[in-house]
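In keeping with the milestone schedule agreed at the kick-off meeting, the structural modelling team has produced records for the first pair of proteins. Each record is given below as a sequence line and a structure-token line. The laboratory manager (R.T.) confirmed that both were archived under the project's standard naming scheme.
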Amino acid sequence: MNLRSPFLSLLALAAAFPASAQSPAVPSMSQNQPPISIGQVTVNAGATFAGSNELIRSGLVWRIYEDRGDASQPVIVARSTSPAPSFTLSPGNYIINVAYGFASASKRISVQRGNLNERLAINAGALQLKGAVSGSPIPANRLTFSVYVPEAQNSEGRLVIADAKANDMIRLPEGTYHIVSTYGDANAIMRSDLKVESGRVTEATLNHRAATVTMKLVASEGGEAFAGTAFSVLTPGGDVIREAIGAFPSVTLAEGEYVLIARHEGKVYTREFKIESGLDRDIEVLAKP
């Protein structure tokens, strides 16, 4: 049964973060148990997705806490990353918690004698995200994703995870999420709302309308680029999008019109240019008075 006491809310929050952020390390319990001492009890645990009887086979983190019956800091007594662990416990009252990414479930158990079999249901699924431009996949190392939970009075929502990578398995409680995909490190951004269903992996490709350009300051068309040039990319209204220094730095920009300013040895040169989705190219600024 699911509990909603302040103590269990604290456990759910703790379970959403890596084990390294928890209480001091406790050796995990594996299937290869030492002989059970007199008076100890074996607890066999398993987890399913809500509405399904099929056991979850990966991505689980189990924690057993001593149940002190108050709101004090929980004390962890056992931990495991096995999908179906067995814990050897002394008689007493405990709270068993299982986390699946950012989702979790908890249950109070009383351990007295014999063996116990406990199965917890987690209302969760996962997202697996990719990006594309003009029908071509974007390399995973050029993309990052941020995931938000919608909130009233907040158009973007509350941040759940930042800088997730393409093809990562992002495990989340069932619900609707706002996804922000960033291609490169400038203004090539796409947004989408996606639904996570219990027991399912939602795969989605966010299609960007952008291109990568290489900026150059040259004496003539096709000429050698001047080293040590400072470039600024601006919108037609004058907002700075990206700045870079070098002979031929690159930037990925959203589709639209821009102004490129090149500064070299105290002189300033400008030109306007347009980004068309999927058309990667050089943008040359001529070093002429």
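The second protein of the pair:
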Amino acid sequence: MIRDARVLQPEFVPREVQHRDAEVNQLTNALDPIVDGERGETAFLFGPSGVGKTCIAQYTVDRLREAVVDIESQYVNCWQHYSRFQALYHILEGLNRTTDVHRRSTPHDELLGRLQAYDGPPYVVVLDEVDQLQDAAVLYDLYRVPNLSMILVANREEELFVDLDDRVVSRLQSARRIRFDHYGEDELVTIMRDRVDWGLDPDSVSDVQLRRIADAAAGDARVALGILRNAARDATRAGDDTIGDDVVDGAIPGARREIRQSTVETLTPHQRTLYDVLDEYGEQSAGELYDRYTERVDDPMTRRTVRNYLSKLVQYDLVISDGENRARTYRLTR
């Protein structure tokens, strides 16, 4: 049944995208100056998870590479590369300028100096989950690199701005903001139908089943593709030629568990500590959670930073927050 499993993977970037023409056009306009040899506008893509922000960023950069022969680009997942050193190192890595960099001894200023000395083709950097940077000063660092253009991706605008100093805020105020909303059910069906046509046998799944998946996904393309991928895999293992309702229903819990586990594995050490405390002790107030967190880490973050971490866990459906202000409590999503 499965002819090309790659198209069902969350990181797959299609040659054509559905239902994001307006967002693609806005981002293309922000990057258009690069075609004329100038620096592109900083673009800020924000919206809930599973709405195509990362896909559209990478898709638009790919299109730009077709228009501008001589261009460099790099994708940085700030959840994985969250320190200033890690982010700068990964950006330099995209230019093949890290061969003699020592991760333990090379100072930040050396990395930044190499970036600022770069005089090659235009360089476009996509900073995904940019609000996860431990030191947002890296954004100011990048603004000082003459030929570098940035695409910033995050769930919520306020999480990015809360800990920024005035120098960075003043720069970001002029960034082009592009808002992404949840997909509608019909839109998810269209997106999945494309993936089915590219990667599965003809007539292996009907639009009735795709609509069933879209309903369960509640506007999140990542969840929808996860369910479709699991359903195709389960049907293949069972020796079925088509995906039936029972297979779809059986694939839904597993897809949610896989996405949840994948997200947990990307958490930073401090976020993972908060998650583990909630897993061990159950529902807690913000004060109780913070006290137990500080007992487990050598260099605890401030209460405000921890609140931001918890907000991120809520956005990714790992944690449920109940109540307001001092009465707020947190518990794991089950």
